[in-house]
Amino acid sequence: MRLTQTKAELRAAAAIRPRAVVMTMGALHEGHAALLAEARERVGPDGSVVLTIFVNPLQFGPSEDFDRYPRTLASDLAIAKNEGVDLVFNPSRDELYPNEPSITVHPGPLADELEGQVRPGHFTGVLTVVSKMLHLTSPDLALFGEKDYQQLTLIREMVCDLDMDVDVVPVQTVREPDGLALSSRNRYLDETERDEALVLYRALTAGAKAGMNGPDAVLAAAHAELEAVPSVQIDYLALRAPDLGPVIGPGEARMLIAARVGSTRLIDNISITLR
């Protein structure tokens, strides 16, 4: 496994094909490991897996947790090596943004909804860094977790609209045995908050079970679970079509939730079949 920290080093690295990239902000956990394992399987033993580790300042708002976001490079590299990563790109802020960006990726109207309504400008920062990383790593495949479902949807749209020559591969959310979605921010939770956070998954699964009774029943079932834990502050609970447009008729849908548990903000989502 080779560690690179500059764009020049990255370009000089052997360009083994096929190449898969997994983009992260570090603080790796089993969810990231699942992405890396899937990447390894898809490119085969003769392909290459690239991991990027970069805490992207463009996607954090002024009152968000950029400064305290966990940086755990040594343990990240251990996980990467264990999962068969060939190349790690871990640039500094000055390396990736030598100047304050004057040109960024405009993510379209979906970026102003859900996460974008709570975090204005977030997806401009996300799509800008993803675009840069795709250009720098030149992958055949780029793997993203479904836990960040709106992010995944917008990346797919960007790749399609800008004719980027890469296949976007979704990977299912990895959960703890009790259902809590794995997140680097889970380490902020104390024991009590960790228990309270389980209500997000309970709400989503209650909604999924009510799918046979239609959209109103789905939302009512989810809200009933959330009301039982009033200390958890809900930013949004939404039921959308798989492309995050409005739900139209029966079929597949996606329920998304964001909430604050103590001082920690968590997101999750689940696929739902509406009858």
UniProtKB/TrEMBL annotation:
<keyword id="KW-0963">Cytoplasm</keyword>
<keyword id="KW-0067">ATP-binding</keyword>
<dbReference type="InterPro" id="IPR014729">
    <property type="entry name" value="Rossmann-like_a/b/a_fold"/>
</dbReference>
<dbReference type="GO" id="GO:0016874">
    <property type="term" value="F:ligase activity"/>
</dbReference>
<comment type="subunit">
    <text>Homodimer.</text>
</comment>
<feature type="binding site">
    <location>
        <position position="174"/>
    </location>
    <ligand>
        <name>ATP</name>
    </ligand>
</feature>
<feature type="active site" description="Proton donor">
    <location>
        <position position="32"/>
    </location>
</feature>
<feature type="binding site">
    <location>
        <position position="151"/>
    </location>
    <ligand>
        <name>(R)-pantoate</name>
    </ligand>
</feature>
<comment type="function">
    <text>Catalyzes the condensation of pantoate with beta-alanine in an ATP-dependent reaction via a pantoyl-adenylate intermediate.</text>
</comment>
<dbReference type="InterPro" id="IPR042176">
    <property type="entry name" value="Pantoate_ligase_C"/>
</dbReference>
<dbReference type="InterPro" id="IPR003721">
    <property type="entry name" value="Pantoate_ligase"/>
</dbReference>
<keyword id="KW-0436">Ligase</keyword>
<feature type="binding site">
    <location>
        <begin position="25"/>
        <end position="32"/>
    </location>
    <ligand>
        <name>ATP</name>
    </ligand>
</feature>
<feature type="binding site">
    <location>
        <begin position="182"/>
        <end position="185"/>
    </location>
    <ligand>
        <name>ATP</name>
    </ligand>
</feature>
<feature type="binding site">
    <location>
        <begin position="145"/>
        <end position="148"/>
    </location>
    <ligand>
        <name>ATP</name>
    </ligand>
</feature>
<keyword id="KW-0547">Nucleotide-binding</keyword>
<feature type="binding site">
    <location>
        <position position="59"/>
    </location>
    <ligand>
        <name>(R)-pantoate</name>
    </ligand>
</feature>
<comment type="pathway">
    <text>Cofactor biosynthesis; (R)-pantothenate biosynthesis; (R)-pantothenate from (R)-pantoate and beta-alanine: step 1/1.</text>
</comment>
<comment type="similarity">
    <text>Belongs to the pantothenate synthetase family.</text>
</comment>
<feature type="binding site">
    <location>
        <position position="59"/>
    </location>
    <ligand>
        <name>beta-alanine</name>
    </ligand>
</feature>
<protein>
    <recommendedName>
        <fullName>Pantothenate synthetase</fullName>
        <ecNumber>6.3.2.1</ecNumber>
    </recommendedName>
</protein>
<keyword id="KW-0566">Pantothenate biosynthesis</keyword>
<dbReference type="Pfam" id="PF02569">
    <property type="entry name" value="Pantoate_ligase"/>
</dbReference>
